[in-house]
Amino acid sequence: MNKKKTLFGLDSKSYEHDFDKTALKTLKALPGFDKVVNFFLNWTYIKWHIVELQGSNFLVTRESCPELYDLVHDVADTLDVRPLPRFYTQWGYNINGYTTGYKEDTILVLNSGTIDLLSEDELRYVAGHECGHIKSGHVIYHTMGELFNSAISQIPVVSSFTTPIYYALMYWIRMSEFTADRAGLLACQDIDAAISGIIKMSGLPIKYFENMNKDAFIKQATEFKQSFSGFTDKAIKTLTIAGSSHPWTVLRAAELLTWYESGEYQDILNANTSSECSACHMQIPAGVKKCPYCGNEV
Q: What is the pTM of this model?
């Protein structure tokens, strides 16, 4: 496994996207939002899903699947995510994952296709993206979004009472993905791997994985961000994605590249310094006198 620089003391605010910050502030200011949160996030709803995962999904542990366990938990360590989430896999051949849970009991779930179709560093990017949601405290509102969609589909009258909150929530969830993408890059520490992972998410057929042209996709991403700026174009952009939980993959690539090229990514890597223990070769915080893993005097 290709270990990365551990970012001890990493603060999620240091890489939070402005879209995320602004959208969450607007969401919390909506009248009745706190009451909707209390209704949807009753512990019973979340417990139901946790019981489902335990009963029907594969729990990844050091004993059950050590290589995969070590990779994902190394990602959590890299981002300084504590406590470590429980990790399940689920059947599905699209590249996807999600987080759920309540308070300190967080759970990370990855599709089988995510693990099979991605390289190690691409997988680190996706796992880091999900760990970023945990680190930023997004899980409770993401879980609320899932429950909201389920309630609206089963009880349509819910929509008439909560439409403003629903669309504001879904908008924030999409904006939070930009913050999580930054966490994914900090976890894999390879912009090429992050972009190639996004390319695979966007629908590139498996038979062409070896010959993918990242530069062409980057050009597409850049042009998309700059194009369709008229009133009608903006309206189409807004309406076609209003109920979605994720921004377009091409836009995600463009935003991530903009952040990477701004120098802020490298500033964070430089600020969160670590060194390698000469005895156990684990990454340890810079300046410590004793390795927290093996006790070796540094």
A: 0.85
